[in-house]
Amino acid sequence: MSPPAPRLRRALPVLTTALAALLCALAPLPAAADAPAAADGSADTASADTAPAVGDGPADWTARPAGGGADRDARPYVYLEGTPGTALQDRLAVTNSGRAPLTVRLRGGGRAGAWIGFAADTVTVPARTRAEVPLALTVPPDAVPGDASGEVVADDGDEEVRVPVRVRIGGPTLAALTVEDVEISGGTIRYALVNRGNALLEPRLAVRADGMFGTLLDRPERPLPLELAPGRRVERTEPWPDAPALDAVTVRLRVTAPGGARDEAEASATYIPVALAVGGGLLVLGGLALLGSGEYRRRRTRRGDPEPPGAESAGDRQPTTETRPLVKAGPLVKAGAES
C-alpha cells in the first residue's frame, strides 16, 4: 500500500480534532436526579407542584362499599342478608383524591334503596381523604322472602356514582314465571314475561313454530339479557324475518328460570299474500251473486207468479185466429139453403 499523500497527512489532525469536539457536544449533561437533594426535600416539592394534576376536579372521587383494603380491593356492591323486620348495617366509602374539599349528597334508589337510611345525607370530604359513612337497611316486616335489589346514589352536583345494593330476604322462596299475551304480527312475535314469585329470575326462552307441512322455526333455549325482579312485567319481541308467505302456523314459547320456574304459551296466525286474498274475495263474491240469482228464479217458479200484463203465449193466440173464419161463414151457409 502506498503512503498517504502529503495533503491528506496534513488534514488528518484537523479531522481528528473536529470529530472529538463533535463527540463532546453530543455527550448528555448530568441528570438532575443525580444532584444531591435538599435536606428538606424542596426539590421534590417543587417538581410535584409544577406537574399538571391528573384527574383533578369533580370526577376525581369515588364511592363504593367500604372494604378492608385499597379501593381496588373493595366489594363491587353492597350485599346484605336478613329476615323481614330486621335492620342491617353497612358502610359506604367516599374517597376524595382531589385538592379541594368534596361535598356529596347520598340517597337510595330502587326497591332496596328505599329501605336505606344514612348517618348523614350530605357528607363533606377533605382533599386527599377517604370518609366512611354508616348506613342502615331496614327490611320491611311485610317483605316477601327472596331477592331485592337497589342502589346507593352519591351526587356531587355535577356527576353521580351509583353503587349496587342486593338484599337476600330470609324465608321460603318461590320461583314462578309466566309468559303471556303472545301475538304474531308479520315477522315479529310479541310476548310478555311476568315474575309471579319472590325470587330474582334470569329467564331463558325457547321458540318453536309449526305450519301445515312441518316445523318452520325451532330456536333452542337461550338466556335472555335481563333480570326479572319479583312482581316485574317485561314486554319483549322475538324477530322472525323468514316468516312464511302462505301458511297457517302455531307459535309456542317456553320460558324457564333457575329454581324450577317454567311456563308455556302459544298463538296461531294465518299468512295469506295480499293478491291472493283479494282475488279469492272477488271470486267468492261472484259465486254468491250467481247463487242468489238462481235461487230467486227458482222461488218465482215455485210460487206461480203471474206473467207481467200484455204477455201472451203462442198457444193462446192460435185458437183466436182459427175461430174467426167460422163465425163469419155462418150466415153465408144459411143464405144458400133458402134459395
Structural summary, described in words:
The protein is 26% helix and 38% strand. It has 339 residues and is an alpha+beta fold. A five-stranded mixed sheet has the order 2-9-8-4-6.
Residue stretches low in confidence (pLDDT < 50, at least 5 long) are 27-58, 318-323, 325-339
DSSP strand count: 16
Largest sheet: 5 strands, mixed
Radius of gyration: 50 Å
Approximate helicity band? 25-40%
Order of helices and strands: HHEEEEHEEEEEEEEEEEEHH
Strand content: 35-45%
> How much is the average pLDDT?
77
Coarse structural class: alpha+beta
Give the N-to-C terminal Cα separation. 191 Å
Count of helical segments?
5
Shape: elongated
In spatial order, strands of the major sheet run 2-9-8-4-6
Layout of SSEs?
Elements: H1 6-26, H2 42-50, E1 61-65, E2 78-82, E3 87-96, E4 102-109, H3 110-113, E5 116-118, E6 122-125, E7 129-138, E8 146-155, E9 160-169, E10 177-185, E11 188-195, E12 204-211, E13 214-223, E14 233-239, E15 247-257, E16 261-271, H4 274-303, H5 314-338
Parallel strand pairs: 2-9
Antiparallel strand pairs: 1-3, 3-7, 4-6, 4-8, 5-7, 8-9, 10-11, 11-14, 12-13, 12-15, 15-16
Would you kindly provide a brief summary of this structure?
This protein is of the alpha+beta class and 339 residues long.
